[in-house]
Amino acid sequence: MAAMDIGIDLGTTKVMVYRGDKGIVIHEPSVVAFNHKTNRVLAVGEEAYRMLGRTPDYITAVMPLEDGVISDHVMTEYMVKEFIKKACGNMMVKPRVILCVPSMTTDVESRAVIETAVAAGARKVFLIEEPIAAALGAGIDINKPLGSMIVDIGGGTTDCAVISLNGIVCSKSIKLAGNSFNREIVKYINHTYKILIGERSAERVKIECCDVYEPTGRTIVVKGRNLLSGLPQSLEVSDLEIQRAVRDLALEIVSTVRSVLEVTPPELIGDIYTNGIMLTGGGAQLSGLDRMIAENTGVRVNVAEEPDRCVAKGVGLAFKHLEALQDGFTHVSVYKYK
Ligand SMILES: Nc1ncnc2c1ncn2[C@@H]1O[C@H](COP(=O)(O)OP(=O)(O)OP(=O)(O)O)[C@@H](O)[C@H]1O
Ligand SMILES: [Mg+2]
After folding, report:
1. Whose CA is nearest to atom 4 of ligand 1?
2. pLDDT for residue 331 is more than 50
């Protein structure tokens, strides 16, 4: 990978940018703040994230990929442009860019993001599918005629794919991932205790006090607003009740994995049985999910090292595989800047 190569994981919750000479140089939330008075981007990433829900009328701070798809393509383009500028600094040479967009992005939306990258100074732009990037980043050799199953659990989407010979053999994506768990926790506490907690508190509950397979009875204190009195209140919840609240979501991920296994060709399913299923994405860290999938499929499950970085690392590594990925496979598209 040359210094002027840039890999971008355009995720629902975060954007990561991989630079050929430095590795991951940007790891920030997928948020953009726009000033409508001046018609200019005010901030992106971390800075814009702090503005969410705290802006006057003429400023919008949004997560433009909120639901696992590009929900606001104009803001997405602004955001991508700013991140490319930020990553390149005063690079003299126009970079080659590999982009990984959420799996449910339409061709028109992908095209728009590609053109944004070109407008931001990219010399050449390639598009890679998320499971392929995730597999590369997890250290899987995708070149061989050997089946591997990747389950990438992001913030907005869960992608389950069987990969062999640089291509996706069968796959399924659902709009259920890490953020769905946060929303379910908010809903549960709201219904049960009539207390409204924020999504960030819900995320803390999920990370610190949730095991979807084997809860132990530990508890956590969260703060929110009592919906009856309107006043602040704190409460203690246990991982047992949180597990009951989110179990169905975890089971839906399990059933997606099963449905892909059911349509996997027999030779490849044999490989997967031998090598196990690889979990990637930030959501792969959800406690107990690996054991739940293993128990319900009878296949060993491995969680990748630094699972939330797999796609970004894979996008960086994809530069080494450009030829193979392009050779007869449709999942990498090339758009040359003329
Ligand atoms: N320790 C953890 N335990 C459970 N979930 C976690 C943990 N750390 C991060 N997550 C969850 O991982 C999700 C983000 O994962 P990731 O960064 O892979 O998403 P993304 O790439 O932005 O989204 P997508 O791939 O869907 O576009 C969030 O929902 C976050 O709550
Ligand atoms: Mg992702």
Report:
1. 286
2. no
